[in-house]
Amino acid sequence: MLEIIVAFGKESDASVIKKILVRDGYSVSYVCTSGAQVLSKTDEIDEALVICGYRLNDMSFRELHDNLPENYKLLLIASAGRIAEITDNGIMSLKMPLSRSEFVDTISMIFAEDRKAKKAKRNQPRKHSDEEKEIINKAKSILMDRNNMTESEAHRYIQKNSMNSGTSLVEMAEMIIRLSRT
């Protein structure tokens, strides 16, 4: 799950944002006033949403954005004029003055998109290495030779048994190979 880092040049601005988030059930991991503080947290946190103002004490939001790891998202909160200057479509932004409901809805949307992306990634079929493919193919050929199965039947057999036993496809293929030696 994404952690939240709030980063504004003024600590009072950061506190206001943090209070809104906490009131709506979000946990804020860190409040920072400089980009260096945010970047130092990247060693501790795998993925985070950084909510920041246009200018921090030591760098602009763009410098911060460019130095954040790929699995970090940045939400810029700035005046309409500052946001109009942004040409990068990859930066999410909200215009000041900020309505509480618009802000919370945006945070909720970011978290929902993150959950959806993680679920899609989890549901992608796992890619087998060449070595693993070789093991699976060897098990299939054993089944095809001994049981007169087609390749697709052998594959289905390995797949079905791996699911029924709660083991991976490769582990099931290894078991078939071991059993064929006895």
Strand order in the sheet with the most strands: 2-1-3-4-5
Task: Report the β-strand fraction as a percent range.
Answer: 15-25%
Number of domains: 2
Secondary-structure content class? alpha/beta
What string gives the helices and strands in order? EHEHEHEHEHHHH
CATH fold category name of the largest domain: Rossmann fold
Query: Can you tell me the CATH class of the largest domain?
Result: Alpha Beta
Give the averaged pLDDT, no decimals.
93
Strand segment count: 5
- The count of helical stretches stands at 8
Shape: elongated
Q: What do we call the CATH homologous superfamily of the largest domain?
A: Response regulator
For the largest beta-sheet, the strand count, sense and barrel status come to: 5 strands, parallel
* Helix residue percentage: 40-55%
Give the radius of gyration.
25 Å
**CATH architecture assignment name of the largest domain:** 3-Layer(aba) Sandwich
Q: What is the terminal separation in angstroms?
A: 48 Å
Low-confidence stretches: none
Descriptive account of the structure:
The protein has 182 residues and is α/β, with parallel strands linked by helices. It has two domains: 120 residues, Rossmann fold; 51 residues, Arc Repressor Mutant, subunit A (Orthogonal Bundle), CATH 1.10.10.10. 55% of the residues lie in helices and 15% in strands. It has eight helices and five strands, in the order βαβαβαβαβαααα. Strands 2-1-3-4-5 form a five-stranded parallel beta sheet, with helices on both faces. Strand 1, helix 1 and strand 2 form a beta-alpha-beta unit. Helix 6 packs across helix 7 and helix 6 packs across helix 8. The model has no long low-confidence stretch (mean pLDDT 93).
